[in-house]
Amino acid sequence: MEQRIPRWELELWSYVSAGDGAHCPIYSHCQVKRRGGWCPGDNIECFNQLLDISQFNPSNYDAIGDVTPCRIFQLVEMLAENFLRKGKVHCPLVPTTLLALTDEQRSIEVRLVPLTVHHGAIWRLKDSWVVQLNANDMPATRRFTLFHEAFHILAHRRGASVFKRRGLKTGSFNELLAEYFAACILLPRQCVKKKWAEVKDLHSMEKIFDVTESVAWLRLKSLGLIR
Q1: CB neighbours of 168 closer than 8 A, spacing ≥ 6?
Q2: What is the pLDDT of residue 106?
Q3: What's residue 213's pLDDT?
Q4: Kindly report the CA angle at 189 between 184 and 190, in degrees rounded to 5?
Q5: Beta strand segments in 104-211, E
Q6: Which residues in the chain land under pLDDT 70?
Q7: pTM metric for this prediction
Q8: Is the peptide bond before 93 cis (omega within 30 degrees of 0)?
Q9: Per 3-state DSSP, what percentage of the chain is helix, strand, and coil (rounded to 5)?
Q10: Is the distance from CB of 152 to CB of 122 less than 8 angstroms?
Q11: SS3 at position 188
Q12: Whether the Cβ atoms of residue 76 and residue 222 lie closer than 8 Å to each other
């Protein structure tokens, strides 16, 4: 029997389920935006470019402001932290075996396939899941994609089907949530702050957490550790 879903997680899935997948479901009443805060949902393409390691150059994106997470991103980080606690992960390196906790009732098979466009995909079978990762990607990118797809598995199980909406362009808001979830899993807030205080070096952080330069930079930026 699955554990009771906490109220804050139900709140998250209610937002995700109510939205169209392409736009922020709380955009019209976002308190951070009303206070003049910088909105990730308005800058999805910018984030996509930053996360693309082949295009990554922090100096090109000085326009990114101080990111104060709005309610939906706060809930996504709470979800990530909850899974880290369930997996008894307290510091790097975060094991990929944590993926199994996204659906403890079904097996999850990970397959490396030479995808031509996407970094990954998921398939729901009768009593199992298949996660496809791009065999052409570097290992750190595949780790990130794995937990990106983990978010979609969770969203599907909680009622926000990842299969019911077609035709959404790459870079939709739900994809941004999945990216944020993966970053929060692989770079836990308190652990990142502790390690950054020790090394103060981006490339060292890449190696410590086994992530790409772009993911490490964006997480440090979102936590206000770099400007």
Answers
A1: 21, 22, 174
A2: 94
A3: 92
A4: 150
A5: 107-113, 120-124, 128-134
A6: 1-3, 60-68, 160-171
A7: 0.90
A8: yes
A9: 55, 10, 40
A10: yes
A11: coil
A12: no
**Amino acid residing at 183:** A
Going from N- to C-terminal start, the domains of the chain cover 7-222
72 Cβ contact partners less than 8 Å away, ≥ 6 residues apart: 12, 15, 24, 25, 26, 177
DSSP code for 135: T
Residue-level pLDDT at 168: 44
Question: Given this model, what pLDDT does residue 1 score?
Answer: 47
Separation CA 143–CA 13 (nearest Å): 24
Give 31-47 as a DSSP string: HHHHTT---GGGGHHHH
- Which amino acid is present at 55? Q
Q: Identity (one letter) of the amino acid at 63?
A: A
Three-state helix/strand/coil letters over 52-121:
CCCCCCHHHHCCCCCCCCCHHHHHHHHHHHHHHHHCCCCCCCCCHHHHHHHCCCCEEEEEEECCCCCCEE
The burial of 127, by beta-carbon neighbours within 10 Å (0-12 exposed, 13-18 middle, 19 or more buried), is given as exposed
Query: Which tokens go with 99?
Result: 């993926």
Please give the structure tokens belonging to residue 40. 């990730």
pLDDT of residue 121: 93
Query: Are the C-beta atoms of 68 and 91 separated by less than 8 Å?
Result: no
Structure tokens at 158: 């909680």
Instruction: Look at residues 56, 83, 32 and name the one whose alpha carbon lies nearest to residue 188.
Output: 83
